[in-house]
Amino acid sequence: MRAPAVILVEDDPIDTELAQRAIAKSGVELELLTFRDGQAALDFMHGDAGKRIFVEGQRPTLMLLDLKMPRLDGLSVLKRIRERDRTRRIIAVMLTTSEEPSDVAACYDNGANGYIRKPIDFSKFVEVMRQIVHYWLVLNVPPPAVEGT
Prior knowledge:
Elements (H helix, E strand, L loop, with lengths): L4 E5 L3 H12 L6 E5 L2 H9 L1 H8 L6 E4 L8 H10 L7 E6 L4 H9 L4 E4 L4 H18 L10
Parallel strand pairs: 1-2, 1-3, 3-4, 4-5
């Protein structure tokens, strides 16, 4: 059985590197796909490469989305993945620095499975990432793929 696939959509290269290091320290085997903006992630999932992954049964289990990004923000990505049968059941967790109640509400209103504020301290960030990965990939039973996708 293949390791679960996780998509990280983060525009800040430092946060991406920290997330990669933190996920590596989680002790959970997974395939991490990283994208610098929301449009690149959607292009992948809805393009030929994404189709191949879905056909091979390697549907991403978890998507970690930064909220504030250029080109296409995390909320827009969330809305678009919820619109398509193939991607609507991917677990989407917002990973952001925003503390705005309106951002929290908008994300949940549009189908976010979680909203987590990024800690500034690296050791706390590692622990948060460990908990996210452990909960969503080890403890949680992921939703089945939509039939015919």
